[in-house]
Amino acid sequence: MSEITFGQYYPAKSVLHRADARAKLFMTFLMIVFLFVCKNFVSLAVMTLVTVVAVLISGVPIKSILKSIRPVLVILVFTAILNILYTKGGDVYFEWWKISITQKGVFTAIFTIIRILVLVVISSLLTYTTTPTDLTTGLERLLSPLNLLHVKVHTLAMMMTLALRFIPTLIEEIERIMNAQKARGADLETGNLIQRAKALIPIFVPLMVSSFRRAYELAFAMTCRCYTGGEGRTRMKQMKLGARDFACLAVCIVSCAGVIVLNKFLGTVI
To answer: Per-residue pLDDT tens for 102-138?
Structure first.
């Protein structure tokens, strides 16, 4: 559990840390969308290269990036196996009974693994380089047109950011409860699926109690500070897009345009 780093902020003085939160949110959304637009390995390589460059200039340690990838390793292996076994086409590499491994299956598995890895890194990089406060403000500013439809954008942005911010806190709480239960002799790692599921009940009950207590304390603290929502609130720091933000946006947009061009000329590989 302690290896899960999603939702954590890593303080540094990189270009991405100083960039406007709105620009980073828009670039993250754009990168994720065009990551699924990629239809061949060349266009996927472009998105991967942009992501690697972003990681290098972010100042976030590679170790932290790898930690964010570790929780999805099981998903990667499971997805790869399914693609290899059930995707048919091209040269046959291996065949036995009803099982066959083909060229298209292998290519699809590799393509999917790279896509998921880049997706996880892009998402983690957003939270690593953006504070929860900036993330809330950026989301609220981007979603501000919804105010015309009487949508409480500030409340929505606050809820999303708080949920994201408390992921590491809940993970730490789960680990603390599990250690406490193990110290009392609880066996959480052996037995069949039903027995292990029953063993998790002593973890979920105190976790729910702790979560409700934290929520109440947070609501009480916000009430004591006269928090009444987004209406009429001002901000100490005003967001302003600078040359740095426009340069990053230009690189992102050019990369996405390159994906479209490569898809058109190289076609679909998988």
So the answer is: 888 888 889 999 999 999 999 889 889 888 778 878 8
159-197 residue pLDDT tens: 777 777 777 778 788 888 888 877 877 777 776 767 777
Q: Enter the tokens of residue 164.
A: 């994201």
pLDDT digits (tens, 9 = 90+) for 139-155: 878 888 877 777 777 77
Q: Is the pLDDT of residue 215 over 90?
A: no
Question: β-strands 92-96, 99-102: how paired?
Answer: antiparallel
